[in-house]
Amino acid sequence: MEKITITNQKQYIETGHSSKGNQLKWKDEPWWYKADQMGYESLAETVVSRILCSSDIGEHVIYEPVQIVYQDKELMGCRSKNFLGEREELITLEKLFRLHTGMSLAKELSYISDTKKRIAYTVDHVISYTGLTDFGAYLTGMLEMDAFFLNEDRHTNNIAMIYRLDDKSYRLCPSFDMGLSLFADMRGDFPLSKPLEDCRKDIIAKPFARDFDEQADAAGELYGTQLIFCISKNEMVKEVRRYEDIYPKEVIDRVEETLRYQADKYSYMIRKKG
Q1: How far is residue 18's CA from residue 25's CA, in Å, rounded to a whole number?
Q2: Residue 6: its pLDDT value, please?
Q3: 108 burial via Cβ count (<10 Å: 0-12, 13-18, 19+)
Q4: Which phi and psi (to 5°) does residue 66 adopt?
Q5: Collapsing DSSP states into helix, strand and coil, what is residue 24?
Q6: What confidence tens digit (pLDDT) does each residue in 211-256 have?
Q7: Quick one: average pLDDT of 115-135?
Q8: Most CB within 10 Å of its CB: which of 42, 75, 168, 243?
């Protein structure tokens, strides 16, 4: 695992946002770095991204763990390559909606009681603003990923598209930001002492429903199911074990057990058995 030293003179530092607070991020082309704050976000990002390489989900950000030295402190974290090309901008759902309506999408969704209608409302507006006619399928795949990996941090500021400044067109954005998956928030809602059965009962999905299956199924009914894995359950577990020399045994064991449970629950998504 590589060790990276962050200096104020060398890197631009910003604070990244999640639904649970702020996370330190640094940009040093071509890399983005971010430090763990809630628990083992870097492990979750890395494992999820590697497993998704054996799926049909399409383009997604690849993460790898790194040790970050910042202000004389050693922090566990991860890095990924910048996926924006020259003269491209990341436009989140929230920003897109505000640009065109002056209103908050998250707030508008709170006025719609039906999950399927919330999703359709979002997709219809994105298509009308961007011309991305396959956004419904894209969003469905994302919600299916969130259900499988128990990503509790999906919101209107980390669903995005990419705007090309030269021709003023849009393209789909690689899927990113899965750090609060697999009960990574062990310093808050999901301490290691908490039984996994209780973790599964307490976790709350976002942004269209509080239940992962409810929002993924609603999207699937509208735009068709999307996510299929070409990797077996045991091969998924091997991706976790790859990092057992970096993370504590109790963390590795919990992520492994969580993945096994999820793979059994969503076995219809897995084409390769074993």
Answers
A1: 12
A2: 85
A3: middle
A4: -145, 155
A5: strand
A6: 999 999 999 999 999 999 999 999 999 999 999 999 999 999 999 9
A7: 98
A8: 42
Q: Which two tokens stand for residue 205?
A: 């999905």
- Domains of the chain plus CATH, in order, are 88-230 (1.10.1070.20)
- Residue 270 is given by DSSP the state B
Longest CA–CA span in the chain (Å) reads 53
Element (H, E) at 149: helix 135-149
Cα(122)–Cα(132) distance, integer angstroms: 12
For the record, the structure tokens of 24 come out as 């330190």
Query: Rounded distance, CA 176 to CA 194, Å?
Result: 27
Tokens of 206: 């976002």
Mean per-residue pLDDT, 101-118: 97
Residue keyed to tokens 């997709």? 123
Tokens of 195: 């039984």
| Residue in 162, 259, 150 with CA at minimum distance from that of residue 204 | 150
Instruction: Report the distance separating Cα 237 and Cα 51, nearest Å.
Output: 10
